[in-house]
C-alpha cells in the first residue's frame, strides 16, 4: 500500500532505516508476534477503527502493525512531544500500516493538532477503540464536544500509571464516557516495563544527554514505586551513591531494605549531582530546590508529565542555554545553573529511545489482548453497549492473560518452566494450568 497523504511525519526517507529496526524489534517481541499468529487468521479487529496515542517508537510501530495484522484500521499520534522516533513513524506510513501524525520535537500546539488528526477519520467520524498512554486522547474526548452525534467509542486500554489515575478519577465522578481497561496494572506490565524498562532507559537517557560519569556521584531518585525501583537499581548498578525520597512509609521501608538511604530533598539538595523524579506527582523539584543545587547538577524526570519539576518557574528565573536537543543549562543570576533533560519531560524517551523491545513486548501484548477483549465483549453483547460486560468503569484483564503474556516471553530467554503435578496443584489449591496466585498476590 502506498502512503495516502493522510499523515504527517518528519521525513519519509527514513522509512528504510525504520524498517530495518522494525525487523530486529520483531525478533525481540515474541508476545506480539505470537498474537499475530494466534489471532491473525480470524481477523477479530476487521474494520475496527483503532486510534493510538502512545510514544511513536519502533516498539509502538510493532504494536500498530500487530493491530493492523488483526484487521484494525489504525491512526496514531505520540503522547509526548519528544518521544517519536521519526524512522519508526515513516516506516509504518510507507507500509500502509497506519495514518500517523507524529514527529520528534512537536510544539504543544502541533501535539494537540496531531492528536485531533489521529482521532478523526476521513469521513469526519471518530474511532471505535483507543490505545492511550497518559490519557490525553481520552481527555480530549471528554473535554471537547467531538463526535457527539456519532459516538462510536467501545472502549480504551490505558498504558500508564498516570493515565489510570485519570481514568479512575473520571469513573469515580461518574464522568467516564466509555469502558476502560487498565493495562498498566497487569503484572506483566507495571512489574516489568515500569521497573526493568526504566532500569534500562534511565541511564541511557542521562548518558546520551550529558555523557556524565555516574560512578561515585550522588543521585537522588524521587519516588520508590515501580519506576523508582528500576531507576534506583540502575543508578546503583553504575556505582552511583543512590538516595531515595518517598512519602509512603511502605515504599520508604522497601528502599531502606534495599540498602538505599531515604532522605528528603532538603537533606541532599546542595550535595547531590543528579536528581530524577519518578512520582507521577507534581512540584517534586521546586524552583527553590534548584536554586540551592550545585552548579551543573543534572535534573530530570522519568514520570509521565513535566509538572514534576517546576519548569515554568525555572524558565522565568534563569537564562536558558541550549546545549543540544533535549539538553539545556538554566543559569541563575548568580552564575550557577542546573542542566535539565528534555525540558522536564520524560527523559528516557526524550533523550534516548525509551524501553527496549523485549520489555515492551510484554506491555504491548497486554495492550493487544485488551483491545481484543473490548471488541469481543461488544460483539458478544450484540453490539449493544448497554449489554456489554464492560460498562463505563475501569477494568483489569484476567490473571490468566497475564500469565499467558509471561509464558510467551520465557522461550526467548531459554527458561524452562516447571510443571505442577496434579497432586501438587491440588495441595496448593490451584489448577495445573493456572492462575497460580490469588488476585491479592503482589509479586
Ligand atoms: P507508583 O505509584 O508505583 O510510584 C510513584 C511513587 O512516588 C509512589 O511510591 C509514591 O508514594 C511516590 N511519591 C508520590 N509523591 C511523592 C513525593 N512528593 N515525594 C516522593 N515520592 C512521592 O507509579 P509508577 O508506576 O512508578 O509510575 C510513576 C510515573 O512514571 C507515572 O507518571 C507513570 O505514568 C510514569 N511511567 C513512566 C515510564 C517511562 O518510561 N518514562 C514507564 C512507566 C510509568
From TrEMBL:
NAD(+) binds at residues 160-162, 225-230, 246, 302-304, 348, 355. SUPFAM superfamilies: Formate/glycerate dehydrogenase catalytic domain-like, NAD(P)-binding Rossmann-fold domains. The keyword Hydrolase applies. One of its GO terms (cellular component) is cytosol. GO terms for biological process: one-carbon metabolic process; S-adenosylmethionine cycle. SMART domains: AdoHcyase, AdoHcyase_NAD. Its EC number is 3.13.2.1. Pathway: Amino-acid biosynthesis; L-homocysteine biosynthesis; L-homocysteine from S-adenosyl-L-homocysteine: step 1/1. GO terms for molecular function: adenosylhomocysteinase activity. The keyword Magnesium does not apply. It is an enzyme of class 3 (hydrolase). It comes from the Eukaryota. Residues 194-354 form the S-adenosyl-L-homocysteine hydrolase NAD binding domain. Gene3D superfamilies: Adenosylhomocysteinase-like (3.40.50.1480), NAD(P)-binding Rossmann-like Domain (3.40.50.720). Its cofactor is NAD(+). Binds 1 NAD(+) per subunit. Substrate binds at residues 57, 133, 159, 189, 193. Belongs to the adenosylhomocysteinase family. Catalyzes the hydrolysis of S-adenosyl-L-homocysteine to form adenosine and homocysteine. Binds copper ions. This is adenosylhomocysteinase.
